[in-house]
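Box 3.1 — From sequence to structure: Nitronate monooxygenase
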Amino acid sequence: MNNTICEMFGIEVPIFGFSHCRNVVAEITRAGGLGALGTAYYTPEQLEMELNWIDERVGGKPYGVNLLLPQKFETVGQEKLDFDKLPEEHVRFVRELLDAGGVPRLPESERESLLREALDQLHMTPEHAGELLDVVLRHPNVKLVVSALGSPPRHILDRLHEHGIKVGAMTGKVQHALKHKANGLDLVIAQGTEAAGHTGVVSSMVLWPEVVDAVAPMPVLAAGGIGRGRQMAAAFALGAKGIWCGSIWLGTRESDLPDEMKELLWAANAEDAVQTRSRTGKPGRMLRSKFTEAWVQPGAPQPLPMPWQSVLSTEARLRFDRAVAKDFMTCPVGQIVGTMRHETSVRQVIYDILAEFGETLVDMAELSDEVAE
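Predicted structure (token representation):
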């Protein structure tokens, strides 16, 4: 366990966990790994509160944050994120879909305020990123910042390095990994198509060794389809120095997902985690539902480009989440969902991964001895 990546962050086990839930992040770090908080929907004030909460619970141990730090921003000022500017065809399609499914509409007296509150969480501007970065730099326990949308701009990278913070980025292509290395990042996270959310199309088994070879000796974390010790062993066998997990935490008791959503995850199979453009306009892996399936039916309109599909899906998500319309409910999740069958804890997930990882190494050593004989 005491490998390069553990030494880099002073952690006990090379298990990195991404979550939008502070409880999950803190518990991963407390268990010896490194939790990373997703910050896509936070205001600076909210992020300050979340990081203070985590600081109080990790006992000085390191953790990370994910920030949207692309080289080029799609600047979407709040005045542009207006639901009324959406194409009528798309609005009608979504409204009629949910009406036909018996999902109640939002109360007219609350609709505008609910939409405004939800839309105000959609941020992708340089100014907002800078404000979140200022918050992060005030918290010395943050030792890793991961950019989810490419390498961060040079001035941001320099600021992070000046504060002793390591910087990584997600990648689904070798070409992008090479750019991250050339830009001076400290590590890359090679994310196979099995993962949740926005992913590429290359499978983990192919992507991981390609990225490892391309950026060596830069350390690589393996992501996409990892939730068991045998998968961790496979990642190490293919050259990774650690693993990056996201979906496997969704069914834990620390996760803030509603119970109804957890039940849907436990009932799902691997093939129910589908790539869809229905939520953001970009391909993202999510749990199959009547909402995701509607967008691939004959006659359905083409999803809008980012961020407008996110704007369009906002009212739909408010409607089916408020009504607990389980046939329509969905969330980002990877193909590992097929192994999630009941509620557990973050700490138990980590222990189970490590136990199976150790057993696998023993089995492989015995197999090696048999081959040698």
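Summary of the box: The mean pLDDT is 93.
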